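re: ur question from yesterday

yeah so i grabbed the chain u mentioned. its 434 aa long if i counted rite. heres the sequnce exactly as i have it in my notes:
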Amino acid sequence: MDVVLLARLQFAFTVFFHYIFVPLTLGLSLLIAIMQTMYVRSGDETYKRMVKFWGKLFLINFTLGVVSGITLEFQFGTNWSRYSAFAGDIFGPLLAIETSAFFLESTFIAVWAFGWERVSKRMHLAAIWAVVVGGNLSALWIILANGWMQNPVGYTVVDGRAKLESFTAVLTNPYAWGQYLHTIAAAWVLSGFFVLGISAWHLARKNETNFFTRSVRLAAPFTLATALAMALLGHMQGQIMSSFQPAKLAAMESHWQTERGAPIYLLAWPNAAGTGNAIQALPVPGVLSFMAHNSFSAEVKGLNDFAATDRPPVLLTFLSFRLMVGLGVLLILLAFVTWRYREKLEDMPRLAKILTWSIPLPYVAVMAGWTLAEVGRQPWIVYGLMRTGDAVSPVPSSSVTLSLLAFLIVYGFLGLTAIYLFGKNACAGPAALK
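ran it thru and got these structure tokens back, copy pasting raw so excuse formatting
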């Protein structure tokens, strides 16, 4: 198999596996910090038990996220050395700063995890808020690095290498900030449904009803608010993307002809040859133009305006966008219904069952979003500057195949461990706490 394809598969697999754990770390830490703030302010022991129960699941998630993420940065040297040689002067410092944010997060996680009854309540509370800040700062630096790959700014190319010219331009990259805000909102939504789904499972069984009703009261408005914010921020990011990556926008909608007042087709399907649509029916005039440029008469570039070698994989980009948006709409509706009946969930077994089974949905939506972001950027690893095929290390395909098989085995074991630990501790409930 081609070494470029193997390197893509390996990096995609390891990134996606690691990213299973990242959103829950970002959002659940915030929910736990809110719970602990309410405990410190009120002295209510139920809030303390909530912090400890959800905190245990948070620590399991964080630990598995760290273990699965260690290998990622090494791959820039092993599999993507030509990219590292080209962009290391810009990409490297961003990852180094991210490491500092991660150390802030991990240090205070230790203080928080082992500090019960050892430090004051306010110091302990400060520790979990430091975890929240550290985790979200860590995500910011990672997305600033990815945002530079999506929309390179603040650089000059000297002797075949990208040299940093303006760190301020990299920090203020509008594409990166749009990505960051949308990603954080999605992480918070995922965490809200995680809490709601587990709480609903227990409420359906009349387990610790006061405890889990309070968890629902806290998580339901949080989830609805962040789901609405996620949709708004996603729309804003789409408009940013239309300016900087018009080929990605065209692939998302399988839009082939440049036109003003571009419609959205309610029924569309790209053809197998990648030269047009096999199905294209029920147009809604001007909507694509409005979504991209806030004007029903604005011009939207079609894929035919781009060389075939510069187009992203249309079908995968098209499908990942629709999966992300479709699940996003479904999650907003479910969040609204849950918020509406948050006080009655114990007596609504059907809704409780739906919420429990909905836990995977935001994970799928988040993965679809990252598929859209990364596949839609192709064939570029640095948009407009370096092609993915030119970034791979000069190593034999057998080496990449062997390491990919090793990752599949090790990460498969980690995945089974995660399922076991989450299932055991989530089902045990707060009664199992010491």
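noticed a couple things. The CA atoms of residues 102 and 209 lie 36 Å apart. also Residues 206-390 form one domain.
anyway ttyl
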